[in-house]
Amino acid sequence: MPNTPAIVSLVLLLSCLVATGDQHATPAAYKLPLIVPLIRDTNTSLYTIAIKKDDAPLVVDLAGALVWSTCRSSTHATVSCLSGACGAANQQQPRRCRYVDGGWFWSGREAGSRCACTAHPFNPVTGECSTGDLTSFAMSANTTSSGTKLLCPEAFATVGACAPERLLASLPAGATGVAGFSRRPLSLPSQLAAQRSFGNKFALCLPGFAAFGDTPVYIGTESLGIVNYTESLPYTPLLTNPRNPGYYLPVKGITVSWYGRDVPASLPAGALDMDARTGRGGVVLSTTTPYAVMRPDVFRAFAEAFDAAIRGTDYAKVVRVPAVEPFKLCYDGAFPFRKRPPTWDVPTIDLELAGATGIWRLFTENYMVQTPRGMCVGILEMEAGGGMPVDGEPAMVLGLKQLDTNLLVFDLDKMLLWFSGELSFRLTGCVSPF
């Protein structure tokens, strides 16, 4: 597949040279959707978005409530502690984290109309947080017309928090902070929707690009050329968790299938349910967790189903082998090989969704990991006493491995999510027309 960022840069250069009329935006142009490239860091597998005007990348966090970054100047603008934005920021404090700055709060601040708001930026990878001024960040992104034409960059600003450099631990080299993408009012998509009145909707094609606003999403296909992929995707309702602003799926069952044999996981009753009062349980999406993680009772049932699907076929001689950390399920033997798409032929994992128009199916690249000692399932068991990598005690987290090479379209006004599954099995990928 072509390199998406390179295509974006080339077309942007040409459009800015020849389409001078696009540089003088009319009031209506401020409501046009935005397109921004996404880059996957090879060392951490985290996705970053270069939407700040200084091009400093921010890590994409689907459950993040804030935009935060290191601030170069001590004279940065601040937000009043009496403002609505400050109230929203302080409703979103991390529930449990270790403060890298010792928990400083309100130090040297005097109450009154001139006080500066203090926010609590959170590193979703390390679980650490800090305090920092709520400020304004200069941003820039390209607008698009009808999802097929990339227009010149447009400047805007978003509210975000300053953070110390030590909060950047475990983030990609060069990243200066995090862009929260949750349903909270100070997340990046929510702020853009409020500013531009283009609907509380955004799309992620991982890795490739992010689209903000109500726009078709066109990607390249092998046989049909460039098509609007949003017209053919199934969708599922999203659940609202009172404790976690992330995106929860109404998963009601898990089935492992291989060569006509379907093995449902014998889950305990209600194992995947989310408690609407406490927020515990449920299945949540994460762009800051490397692999899917399951609570032990869920993992045991899933592992038994996966083993049964492997044993139940005569098409391949595959055996369980000692696990390779951090994985628990590893296999060796003659896995067949597909020609289209060219990849290993392994079981599919189906997540059955209540109220959805389709199932969420995990193919090879979205869960299988090749190691020197065999093929391992990139779905981990939560360690006893270790807790989940996501706040709210979910039953299952779908991580970066499961979301890679997927198109996800979030409509937060309707609380719906359109999903593609692994795009290579549709003989396409996250290649935009730009």
Textual characterization of the structure:
The structure is a single chain. The chain is mostly beta strands and 434 residues long. It has two domains: 4-215, Acid Proteases (Cathepsin D, subunit A, domain 1, Beta Barrel), CATH 2.40.70.10; 226-426, Acid Proteases (Cathepsin D, subunit A, domain 1, Beta Barrel). It contains five helices and 30 strands. It has helices at 4-18, 84-90, 188-196, 296-311, 400-403, and strands at 34-40, 47-49, 58-61, 67-70, 98-99, 118-119, 128-129, 132-145, 149-163, 177-180, 201-206, 209-212, 218-221, 225-228, 235-237, 248-249, 251-258, 261-264, 283-285, 292-294, 318-321, 330-333, 348-353, 360-362, 368-371, 374-377, 379-381, 396-398, 406-411, 416-419. Strand 29 and strand 30 (416-419) form a beta hairpin. Mean pLDDT is 85; it is low at 1-29 and 105-113.
